[in-house]
Design a protein that fits this description.
Blueprint (H helix, E strand, L loop, with lengths): L2 H9 L5 E9 L4 E7 L4 E7 L2 H17 L7 E7 L2 E7 L4 E2 H4 L5 H21 L1 E2 L3 E8 L2 E6 L5 H15 L5 H13 L8 E4 L8 E4 L2 E5 L6 E3 L1 H14 L6 H12 L9 H9 L19 H15 L1
Antiparallel strand pairs: 1-2, 2-3, 3-5, 4-5, 6-11, 7-10, 8-9, 8-13, 10-13, 11-12
Helix pairs in contact: 4-7, 4-8, 5-6, 7-8, 7-9, 9-10
Length: 311
């Protein structure tokens, strides 16, 4: 079945399509850009897990409503056969992942500032009761987001880090015992503040236009955690991922956060967790930092060096 054609027939029965172009590569979604003959363009996303895709679009709408983060407008969502789909407006700009290293230092710092401010807005706009996987529940005309997985922060966070350690390939074996010890030696508050944890908020999921972030694209599989974990993760993906010395980017990120709310406590174990959970993707493959992307032993070396410095 041609799912894209089926979606277009249902949602745009009177529009004539000029082209359908495969777009972003993801582990969970199939995404294409559809251009109509009148010049208008939309993005169609398809996923076998319809509920997960509809949760993502509900969160994207809420982020657009509650923060200044630029999020493409969701046109519609639905289910066709065994696929969930979402249609969103195509945002202006090019892949920030590919452009970041080409930008001048001042523009890089401004983008880091933008990510810091955006994360702080998310932390202010989305506070939750529990930790772990977030769900969306319609309440009248509003969507309420909840984290019902657990109310036990130490247990959830310990499991979250241990799962990341277990996923590391053999190239990390010499660090494994030290990472486990770092988790076991850490102390955790019993009932800390829980906020939205946008674990994949990064330049790789953003567009840039004229030196500014023009869209943040991926809000899938949202989690709830303490603010410090979110800060550690996003800061790592912004300040460490693309440059050899992220000191100035880290400061710009923090300055951006503090324009909205006070910087939260970020414990060493938060930073270790951020790197561990960034080193391997959902397919078990070592992630490829930088651009041009490091691969193979160079990618492993990047993650190992960061972990060694934290340990």
């Amino acid at each position: 079945m041609d799912y894209v054609a089926a979606v277009l027939t249902r949602e745009f029965p009177n529009r004539h399509v000029a082209s359908v172009t495969p777009a972003r590569k993801g582990n969970h979604k199939h995404t294409v850009i559809v251009e109509f003959v009148d010049g208008h363009a939309v993005v169609v996303q398809l996923a076998t897990d319809a509920d997960a895709l509809h949760l993502e679009t509900a969160l994207a709408r809420a982020v657009g409503d509650r923060t200044t983060i630029p999020v493409p407008t969701v046109v519609t969502t639905g289910t066709i056969a065994d696929r969930g789909y979402a249609v969103v407006e195509r945002a202006a700009g090019s892949e920030l992942h590919e452009q970041f290293v080409e930008l001048d230092d001042a523009t890089q710092r401004e983008i880091a500032h933008t990510f810091g401010r955006g994360l702080a807005e998310l932390h202010g706009a989305f506070t939750l009761e529990g930790y772990g996987a977030v769900t969306a529940n319609p309440v009248g005309t509003r969507v309420e987001f909840r984290a019902d997985e657990t109310r036990d922060w130490p247990r959830w966070f310990s499991s979250y880090v241990h799962d990341g350690i277990d996923a590391l390939p053999a190239a990390f074996d010499s660090l494994r015992d030290s990472l486990v010890a770092a988790v076991e030696d850490a102390t955790f508050p019993e009932n800390p503040l829980s906020t939205l944890y946008p674990w994949d908020l990064r330049p790789g999921n953003a567009l840039v236009d004229d030196g500014s972030v023009s869209a943040v694209l991926d809000w899938g599989q949202p989690l709830a955690a303490v603010p410090g974990l979110g800060v550690a993760k996003v800061e790592h993906l912004v300040a460490d991922w693309y440059v050899s010395d992220g000191t100035l980017l880290r400061q710009a990120f923090r300055d951006g956060y503090e324009t909205v709310r006070p910087y939260p406590p970020v414990e060493p174990i938060h930073r270790i967790a951020a790197v561990v959970r960034s080193a391997v993707d959902s397919n078990g493959e070592v992630t490829r930092p930088g651009y041009p992307e490091r691969t193979g032993t160079r990618a492993v070396s990047f993650h190992r060096q960061r972990l060694e410095s934290l340990l």
